[in-house]
Amino acid sequence: MKQETPCIAVCFIDPKAKLCLGCGRTLPEIARWHAMDSAERLAVMTTLHQRMQDAGLPIRASRADRKTGS
């Protein structure tokens, strides 16, 4: 089974916001990702764009966006 992930292989935690600059997840979310069920992963993924925006961090294109050119 393929696990959906927001990871774009830009792994660096912003020290102030405590968010990954590549995907917007926190370290605890990244660590638990493999153990989360699909609903929990989706719930986290729906918050990523807004939390990056709220923290004033750059919002990067997801892997899907880069493949489709969106």
**What is the overall pLDDT average?**
88
How large a portion of the residues is in β-strands, by DSSP E?
Answer: under 5%
SSE arrangement, N to C: HHH
Q: Characterize the largest beta sheet: strand count, sense, and whether it forms a barrel.
A: none
Binned, the helix content reads 40-55%
Instruction: Please identify the structural class as seen in this structure.
Output: mainly alpha
Multimerization status: single chain
Report the C-alpha radius of gyration, rounded.
12 Å
N-to-C span: 26 Å
Shape: globular
Provide the number of structural domains: 1
Question: Count the helices. How many?
Answer: 3
Weakly predicted, low-confidence segments:
none
Strand segment count: 0
Walkthrough of the structure:
This protein is mainly alpha-helical and 70 residues long. The chain has one domain. Helices cover 41% and strands 0% of the residues. It is built from three helices and no strands. The protein has helices at residues 27-32, 38-54, 63-68. 11% of the residues are buried. The model has no long low-confidence stretch (mean pLDDT 88).
